[in-house]
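ok so heres the complex, three chains, lmk if somethin looks off
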Amino acid sequence: MSQEHHQSFLTKYIFSTDHKMVAKQFLLLALAMAVFGGFYAFLIRWELAYPNQPAPFFGVVTPDKYNVIITLHGTIMLFFVGMPLLNAFPSNFLVPLMIGARDMAFPRLNMASFWMTFVAAILLISSFFVPGGPVAGGWTGYAPLSASSEFTGVKAGAVLWILSLALIFIASSLGGINYLVTVVTMRAKGMTYSRVPLTVWFLLAAAMTFFLAVGPILAGAFMLLMDNVFGTGFFLPGKGGEPLLWQHLFWFFGHPEVYVLFFPTLGFVLDISAVFARKPVFGQKLIIGSTVVAIALSFIVWAHHMFQTGMNPTLVTPFAITTILISVPFAIIYICMFLTIHNGSISLEPPMLWALGFLATFLVGGLTGIFLGAAGADIYLHGTYFVIAHFHYTMFPSVFFGGYAAINYWYPKMFGRMLNKTAATIHFVLTFIFFNCTFWPLFIVGMGGMVRRIADPSFYPQFSPFVHLNIFATISAMCLIATQTIFLWNFFSSMKNGKKAELNPYQANTLEWLAQSPPPHGNWGPKLPVVTSGPYEYSEPNKTEDWHTQAPSYKGEASHG
Amino acid sequence: MDNVTAVDHAEYEVEDYTGPAGTTAGRLGVWILISSEITIFAGLLGSYILFRLFHPEWAEESAHLNIVLGTVNTMLLLTSNFFMMKASTAVDQGDQKKSAKLMLITVALGLAFLVVKGFEYAAEFSHGEFPSKNTFWSFYFLLTGLHGTHILGGLVAITILWAKAKNNALGELKGRVALTGLYWSFVEVVWVFLFPLLYLLREGGAK
Amino acid sequence: MSVSASKSNHELVYFALVILALITVGASFLHLPGDENVYLIFGLALVQALLVAIQYMGLKLEGVMVYGLVIIPLILFAILVFLCIPDISHYPLNLKL
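and the predicted structre for the whole thing:
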């Protein structure tokens, strides 16, 4: 049976239903959108350090442009970089390979999911070219700013923003349906749930959390659309509506969404730690159990984003308690991660560096979250740069450290070549240093009382003590962004010039390393692998080798030659 | 392109997964879709209920809705769903022609639902009851509009299946009839709640 | 695969649904003291929804996973509405409306 098919350029690269090609499309989309998001981050930092001076490649960031830029930075980084990079790309690429399937359960739905995401991205960017410009009400789209054009002067841009978000939410839900059905119905023989690698578990957890949480925000998006288009007043107090309802609907989705962007990284880091520490993952079942508890709790913590909004004080204490409570399952998972690498024979390959970097930096983000969960501290800190620093200490490690870990680790399988190790290591070290230099000062600035969401800090004399810290953060941020060019160069040049990769360069157990690099259409040879052991059986006593694959009987391509 | 995908599927040796009640991959997929849809309608109906709880005066607005046409629509949708179930049974028994006839009735009844809804909208517009009149009417048009969109989607799917089934050419799409029936029943369940929430809470309502 | 659907007596379920729907409409015309007719209407609607779900949608033959898919969103719905009542439905600014 031949794996070579006659495919035209269009069916192979553009309208492909092959899960690996769809995954690469999502990855490239995420990287392209990250360029936009990164450029906006640069403009934001520039304005905060050098207010009213023309920014390179842009010009003066006036307050109205600043509002547009922070809105688009948030929207793009979370929904068009985070979700494609951490959910769509790895789910598409890894789920079928790791469970021993030939493709997704619904390949065409998969293709539709990518193209809907693509159209959503186009809609968002096209809002630059409509009268009034893009939406400027913040990435959370708080009503009434987002519900009526009289406040920001943006009408068409707001409609495009809502449509774009609704479309990417629907696309991601459809993708999630696909991943779930694939794992339930298409596991290879012997691949029981306890033998499914944690990466797949966490990708599933993310997909499940997403499709359970996304309904209310879609409902809210429809209502917001009606407010903008048909002049209704769901969220406009002047017309009998309730602006807080939007915030409830938004954060009911928004908080689980944070975990949607965080779970996949937990999976990558656990799998990568096991391979590069040559040890089984500590407490696999405990980790899965904690995740279930965390998902359940994630649906009853949302109002901690709203302590400042004037919501009913009766709700504050219950939400503060659940918020503090949710750190317990995550602490358990974290301890399991440390115990996984504890006493291991660690090799500091680039993927492992990213995993360790994640452990170090996310810890800061997680611990500062406890400050913000306690309502008393939150009411002081929530409007300041402390929240910005906390949020970026959770999201940057999740999206970028986790994303880079995954790209570095699975690159040989994706493209059949190795990344340049020196460049990858330099990229990690510089990113780690500059990331901390960018965001650590913001904790201090925020504690000092500098409020967020203002364009020109020089306008407020009380913020003058923070000028030097702001300039330091901005220079670090510019270095951080510049560092990413090392990665882009490495990523694209290694596709052609990289060292040819072996089948299993890291001597890992999981199934994807049995397939060719890159895997052909259909992934496996004539026979599917038959799984006989778990994914983390490393360094077992009384064995000559410290690893053995999950499907030792798999013959691969050789058998039909 | 179709040729290529056909070949791909032929060579995949995916063992058919069968869960309880013959839950195939497709059926599980539709159930997850329904699960996701429940959360969307939960967000909308939940918002409506939250508003309704402190707006007892909406009972008056609700009294402007045409309860006769609402009841007729309930019956149309119920009957349409019944025929869809019959159609899916007919496919199981291998009688595609019969199922095509039953699906045609289903589509006709579904279209009748939309036509009646259109008359209701027209009458309401002529009384100046636009979505922007007040929040009750905003909710009314949004909820019925979204439900109507679901009906439209279902009708398109059933029509495609009917066009195949009448020529005895369902082939691999056989399973889709039952799956579309599953979705169609869900649209019916949504209406079962929409109808009383919008039309029937005229006396007292929730105070 | 609609093993489940073909095992149900569609006619019986259909007539039950029609009668229940008519009673629901009738109940809305009752002048009961307090909120009784509200409970009656939604009780009947719930029975109809369960009939459709169990008989037509084949829920009676499904496994734990599908029940979870139906019940979890309903629990989330209850949580969302319950926790928003103090904020939306009893927000002091709106009491004078």
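quick notes: Confidence is low (pLDDT under 50) at residues 1-16 of chain B. thats all i got rn
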